[in-house]
Amino acid sequence: MCPGYFKIKAGKEASVGQLIAWIGKELLKGPIEVSQLEAYNESTENGNWLGRSFIVSQQGQWTVFEDITGFIYSEGTDAWSRLAKEYDLVVAGYNDSILLGRLIIIEEGKVVREFFEHEKDRSDDVNEGPSPYEDDSPIGQWSDLEEFVYDETYGYEVNEGTLYVFKDDS
Is 138 helix (H, G, I), strand (E, B) or coil? Predict the structure, then answer.
């Protein structure tokens, strides 16, 4: 599994606008209202991803972007800071097939927590900053992110939402 998401503490329209400007890629599909299963079908052709795909939903004060293609691991903290601008942003995910996890928490445009671990390549590992979300269950290795990702207090649960698929030049 490789669940991952990022969320911006702002309304859906503003957050999607920020994403479109930040990602800088052609929008191939979207907005399309979908379930999780439909999102996969709409985002692939003959079993191959069409591009970077996100299911977007509003959850309270947050706009949540479920990353269904693994994009969150390809961008560094500086790039996520540019997306956040002055907003709060959380990036969280793990991939148990390649043993990797990422957590970035940005509050009011400032990085307050950064965690990245790739068990097979430790050259970029980082574990810095306090997080109010980790009082009871600190994150010390990539596998600790499973609980964080799925916890209803600070995680996500996207069963349906608005699909956006962006061209991926890589």
Answer: coil
What percent of the chain has pLDDT above 70?
92
**Model-level pTM?**
0.86
Report the C-alpha gap between 149 and 93 in whole angstroms.
Answer: 6
* Pairing relationship of beta strands 48-49 and 44-45 according to DSSP bridges: antiparallel
Say which amino acid occupies 69.
Answer: T
Residue 92: Cβ-neighbour burial (10 angstroms; 0-12, 13-18, 19+): buried
Query: How far, in Å, CA of 156 to CA of 153, rounded?
Result: 8
